[in-house]
Amino acid sequence: MSKSLERLCLRVVALASASTLMAAAAFAQSAPPSPPSSAKSSAQPSGYPGIGREAKPKEVAAWDIDVRPDFKGLPPGSGSVAKGMVVWEAKCASCHGVFGESNEFFNPIVGGTTKKDVQSGRVARLTDPGFPQRTTMMKLSTVSTLWDYIARAMPWTAPKSLSTDEVYAVTAYVLNMAEVLPDDFVLSDRNIADVQQRVPNRLGKHTEHALWPGSGLGSTTAKPDVRSTACMNGCGAQPEVASSIPDFARNAHGNLAAQNRLVGAQLGADTAQPFGKADAVSAQQAALAAVVAVPAPSTLAATALIERHACTACHGMDNAMVGPAFSAIAARYTGKADGETYLAAKIKSGGQGAWGAVPMPPQALAEADARVIAAWLATGAKRASR
Ligand code: HEC
Ligand code: HEC
Predict the structure, then answer these.
(1) Residues 78, 188 contacting (CB under 8 angstroms)
(2) CB 210 within 8 Å of CB 222
(3) Cα separations (Å) of 333 from 83, 124, 329, 339, 374?
(4) Which ligand neighbours the alpha carbon of 321 most closely?
(5) Which atom of ligand 1 is nearest to the CA of 91?
(6) What is the pLDDT of residues 83-103, one digit of tens each?
(7) Distance CA 275, CA 258 (A)
(8) Alpha carbon 380 to chain centroid distance?
(9) Burial level of 189, CB count in 10 A (0-12/13-18/19+)?
(10) Tally of CA atoms within 13 A in the half-sphere of 225 that contains its CB
(11) Which of 43, 59, 200, 241 could form an SS bridge with 113, CB 3.0 to 4.6 Å?
């Protein structure tokens, strides 16, 4: 067996035992009290003799970072609301807004909950169809989930980079913004169970669906909550569309047609045009025809590369996001001597100050790829489809 195939098999075996462990952990939550033991699971003989090896306890531990609603898995530590504000403003606010209110990158984190919800344990606005958004705070029922999610997945561009105390602090700050915790609060592993008793929607989740611990799971007769009966009688003649994107929001994330991956004939709607306009349709068809025809190879390469290297997570074609719009960068550097060399170096090294205080992290891409993108930016950043 080749070395690389051997490594691959090893990884598959490690993955398989980690997911078994997670399933075991989910069951152990409802069936007291048999905590999953990584040592035990890795000591079991492999079901695939001759393939790979057993995952080592350290390897399993690296996967096994989940924090459960009963706080098993929560590492000791603490962090204040005040320190959380510093972390939030440095590492979270650029995407989620200073008050967690932004819906630019994701639904708002904070909003829609009240002091009354903190008392009742149910978010009243979840049952109000007139309320426009469902924020994270409205839906969250377990504080462990907030802690766990931030620890494993945020900041989006550098997951797992926060220290344990920073996770405590920023979790406390999110809860402070939602008026769940006071300004002088210090969240820790010792008081987090009390904080759970203040989560606005803590009683709003139900578990009677046989998919999660609750009365349904242990039962062998319970069925998941997909219990539809035949619905094909007395149906209305015409389905009625109850909501649609309002005109003002149609282009909120920039022109979708210009952001699609160039993998073939599937451009999105030209959202720069009003909905249903004939000219929009024909502009889209023209763009499509151009892509399907013969795009200039260097242009296609650059626009494909900014997708492949996830530059578009922070840069829009025409709209500033975390970083400036590519069209704005092109406008600044096109025709400048050394523009291409400068940009290729900056893409690799990252840095701040050219557009503002928000830094661009160094980008791990091949020098040749950075050059292709830099050359494209230094010559007008033309679209593949134009
Ligand atoms: C570069 C942009 C970016 C940054 C910076 C960032 N986030 Fe996020 N965040 C996102 C995106 C995008 C999602 C949705 C991810 C998904 O659903 O896959 C998200 C989701 C979340 C969620 C889950 C919301 C839910 O309802 O599921 C929380 C909580 C969160 N972020 C907190 C933070 C915190 C705390 C920080 C700072 C330590 C942070 N984020 C930094 C982009 C960002
Ligand atoms: C995490 C967000 C983020 C990602 C990912 C990112 N950038 Fe940036 N980028 C920024 C920010 C913020 C700036 C502004 C930096 C400054 O003001 O100097 C920037 C600036 C730039 C500039 C202008 C530099 C200058 O000095 O004028 C270029 C070119 C650029 N980025 C290209 C890229 C490319 C190519 C990629 C992908 C390989 C990429 N960026 C990925 C955030 C990002």
Answers:
(1) yes
(2) yes
(3) 39, 52, 6, 6, 10
(4) 2
(5) 37
(6) 999 999 999 999 999 999 988
(7) 16
(8) 31
(9) middle
(10) 11
(11) 200
Amino acid letter, residue 354: A
Tokens representing 251?
């282009």
Distance CA 112, CA 375 (A): 47
Residue with tokens 């840069």: 315
Least confident span in 52-56, 127-131, 175-179: 52-56
**Residue 124, C-beta contacts closer than 8 angstroms, at least 6 positions apart:** 114, 116, 117
State which of 104, 303, 314, 349 you would mutate to test the pocket of ligand 2, scoring each by most atoms of that ligand within 8 A of its C-beta.
Answer: 314
Give the HSE-up count for residue 255: Cα atoms under 13 Å, Cβ half-sphere.
16
Is residue 54 scored above 80 in pLDDT?
yes
Cα 53 to Cα 60: distance, rounded to the nearest angstrom: 13
Q: What average pLDDT score do residues 297-324 get?
A: 84
Cα–Cα nearest to 110, from 29, 177, 163: 177
**315 ligand 2 Cβ < 6 A:** yes
Retrieve residue 382's tokens: 């033309």
For residue 342, the ligand 2 atom closest to its alpha carbon is 26
Burial of 270 (0-12, 13-18, 19+ CB in 10 A): buried
Q: Which ligand 1 atom lies nearest to the CA of residue 87?
A: 38
Q: Which two tokens stand for residue 192?
A: 């987090």
